[in-house]
Amino acid sequence: MVALLVSLRWRQLRHQLSRNPWMVVTLIITGLIALGFLAALTAGLVALRFAAPDAAVTAIVLAGTVIVLGWWVGSILVSADDSLAPERFALLPLTASSLLPGFVVAGATTVGGIGTTVALLLMLLGWSVSLPALLTALIMIPVAVATCVLGARVVSGVLAGWLARRSARDLVVIVGVVLLSSSGVLLNVGIGALVRVNDVGGAFTTIADIAAWTPMGAVFGVSGSVAQGDFLTAALRLLIALATVSALWFAAQGLLAARLVAPIQDAGGGRVRSAGLLDRILPASPVGAIAARTLRYFRRDPRQIVNIVMLLLLPAIFIGLSLMNGLQDESIGFGPAIILIPTINALLTGTIVQMAIAYDNDAVAAHILNGVSGAADRAGRLLGFGLIAIPVTLLLCAATCLIAGRWDLLPASIGSAFGLTAISAGAGAWVGSFLPGRAPAPEANPLGRGSSGGVQSLLAMIIIGPITLVLGAPALGFAIAGIWNPALGWVSLGCGVVLGAAALWGGAVLGGSILNRRWPEVLAEVSSES
Which of 306, 331, 36, 29 is nearest to 175 (CA)? Predict the structure, then answer.
């Protein structure tokens, strides 16, 4: 059974790679990034091994604890993409005790599991400060991997019923995006707190010592105690590590048995209500219908909700970082530059519009069957997005001018933000017609495979970025100059409106003409497996 489940997992991956060449490129790029992290880990461990052996032990315990926590918390985000979900085996004459070993080994032999094992093997460089610690760490690697995989299964199994509800999944996605996006602010706060600590090394040592007594870090604390020659503490931590694995095993087996006899089914988002006012406001044409549907997507589709949250959150993060680092201090002489922060949304706008068709998945066939022109598709999606992006942009511009105390700079802020955002949207509408990107299928995990658009979106950003900077240079340049001469802010506003409108028109027309020729290819790309 173990060999069967492992081979099934890898056959599924091979099938996905054979059907989607872009996924092969994504896997290669991801692998190269992972190799870069592993190389950095190796260099850091070698440096600590010879420069500060005691610090190496502390760093490994902390890093190991973070890896285990990453598995456990990450299982919440990826559980919806589990190709070996227990419900798939509910109709087969199989028991939990026969399936669980295969699930554990299959989880340990995924790309993430193999990467974790390699990282644990590289940590042996740090454990080489002591031969007994090195041997202990080598023996504890299977225990560490089992702790990661079993803990992830237990966490996802406990929350499976709750996550089956649409509202719960949306909440998890939004909270996850907020936390991930705020990591810079949290890191800044953490660094600021460490600066105020007199003995930073002692603080890390204390944290590592505490973590080594927890279920997440005990498996690494065993080798840490052996390295210090404290064998009694090592024995106690070994007992905690083995008890953790045993408890997780029986918990995972119980949860698996329950789901085999009572499969969990995903619940929808409730009854869909009509939007009469919205339909009356928008034009009674294909453009208006597509715009109305786009707005409904932004309200109901968690993948699109994430995009709207990011439009508000990303500038807010930069504003917070600016305030924390003293950008508002008049002694620096550059405080009013905070009014340019809303322009950062241009980075997101191009990708959101570029991936608009990918979010439709195979439902885009309705456009083809009803004879919707490419220009109408592009214009409708731009109109729907604009009805949300324009108020958000105005709100952010007003907020930054209020923080800076410079309402005379509002035209410059709006000109820069609106101009570059509109140009980015127009460029995204054009690029999305031949590089539609990848997106998770409807009802799939919004942060699962394809959530970032894949390699197509990476290439699209490489194209959209220079176009936005070149065409938006007048609006941005006059906005920057307007910080010293507010009258130039009105020039920036004029450039932003004219150039933005031209970019939107060009994106709709040029992108539409390409779509008219490529509808079948686009449908095949967005509806294939991610």
Answer: 306
pLDDT in tens, 317-330: 887 777 766 554 44
Which of 78-87, 147-156, 307-316 shows the lowest per-residue confidence on average (mean pLDDT)?
78-87
What is the distance between the alpha carbons of residues 322 and 412, in angstroms, rounded to a whole number? 19
* Count of other CB atoms within 10 angstroms of residue 47: 12
Ramachandran bin of 230, using left for φ above 0, alpha for ψ from -120 to 50, beta for the remaining angles: beta
* Cα gap 475→181, rounded to integer Å: 28
Q: Please write the tens of the pLDDT for every residue from 351-374.
A: 889 888 888 887 788 888 888 888
Instruction: Say if residue 498's pLDDT is above 90.
Output: yes
- DSSP annotation of 265: -
- Nearest partner of 340 among 416, 408, 237, judged by Cα: 416
How many whole angstroms separate alpha carbon 396 and alpha carbon 342?
6
**If phi over 0 gives left and psi between -120 and 50 gives alpha, with beta otherwise, what is residue 214?**
beta
For the whole model, what pTM was predicted?
A: 0.66
Residues in the chain, how many? Answer: 530
Average pLDDT of 265-285? 64
Complete DSSP assignment for 402-469 = HHHT-GGGHHHHHHHHHHHHHHHHHHHHHHTTT-----PPTTS-TTSTTTT-HHHHHHHHHHHHHHHH
Nearest to residue 412, comparing CAs of 498, 489, 338? 489
Tokens 């590590």 -> residue? 241
Whose CA is closest to 444, among 80, 162, 84? 80
* pLDDT score, position 80: 52
The CA distance from 336 to 338, in Å, is: 5
Averaged confidence pLDDT in the chain: 81
Q: Name residues whose C-beta falls within 8 Å of residue 139's C-beta, 6 or more positions apart in sequence.
A: none
Q: What is the largest CA-CA distance in the chain?
A: 78
* Distance separating alpha carbons of residues 354 and 349, to the nearest angstrom: 8
In the predicted model, what is the mean pLDDT of residues 502-509?
94
Give the SS3 label for residue 132: helix
HSE-up (13 A, CA, CB side) for residue 30: 14
